[in-house]
Amino acid sequence: MKIATFSAFATVLLLGVTLTACGPQPRQTAEELVSQSDIALPDEVDPVIARVNDSMIRDSDVQREIRVRGVESEQPLQVGDELYDLVVEELIDQKLLALEARSRDLHRSPEARRRMAQAEEQILGNVLLETVVNEATDPQVIERIYDEQIRLIPLQEEIRARHILLETREQAEAARALLEAGEDFADLAVRISLDRATRLDGGDLGYFTRRGVADIFGEIAFATPEGGVSNPFQTEFGWHLLQVVDRRRQPPPAFETLEPGIVQFRTFEQLQELLVELRANADITRREPQPEAALEPEADETDPPNEAPQ
Fold it and tell me: Beta partners for 235?
């Protein structure tokens, strides 16, 4: 039960923070993630977008709020964009409400202090998670894991082939005779093959491994030498002629294919290790559920009422 609870908690923590690492993201330090608006940047780098009394709203404040909403854009939004302007107005309202709350000394109330302390813990926890993610998903680390993974992947032989699909054996034998007479396999496939999916590509099937096709197709394909043409053979689809165009060792999956999975695995792994270590070194006590009070026995409704003596 404790393990299941921990895993669910870790998943929730990752939803808003760590899974964004699966795609290309700008890398930021912990200080940048805590409070970018508190960093004194030149106005030309982080311009002031609005002022509310003595408080400023900078472009970085607006961009951060846009990212929190999960909006992705090839180019950063700017003043004049509908969403950008909407966020600016909402941040202005937020500052006005906060300033009014301070003017009423609401920030000094026990409830406000408790909630601000809770918010601070959440922000610091998120900053730590983001720091762990940045360290765990360092490009050099991801590339090293990728290299280790592809060394473990068994790479099979694969071939590239073309085929011609016909209805009868006689048609297939006649087509093979044309090929033996010098007819180009791809041109003949375009003219007579019944396979609509490959006919216009000259019957090109692309690369495949022995396990990637039906048994008889793979058996004949891998028994045919490169450049050679098979004898006619039958499958459930009809009669085939097959030409082997190329043979090679199967290439490993591209880095871009494996990267998202590696990043996600690495992120969960590092977060889990961190939480296990923190729990092991912390003094954690929990309030146990209170036992339910024993219920008094109720009278049996079937018992006859007491009768007065005669």
Answer: 238
30, 31, 37, 43: CA torsion to nearest 10: -120
Instruction: Tell me whether residue 304 is in a domain.
Output: no
Q: What is the pLDDT of residues 117-151, one digit of tens each?
A: 999 999 999 889 888 888 888 899 899 999 999 99
C-alpha triplet 52, 57, 59: angle, nearest 5°: 155
**Do 162 and 186 touch, CB atoms closer than 8 A?**
yes
**Confidence band for 14, pLDDT divided at 50, 70 and 90:** very low
Domain end position, chosen among 147, 176, 191: 147
CB neighbour burial string for 22-34, b if at least 16 within 10 angstroms, e if fewer: eeeeeeeeeeebe
pTM over 0.70: no
Question: Would you mind telling me the total number of residues written for the chain in this entry?
Answer: 310
Partner residues linked to 249 by β-bridges: 157
Does residue 173 fall inside a structural domain? yes
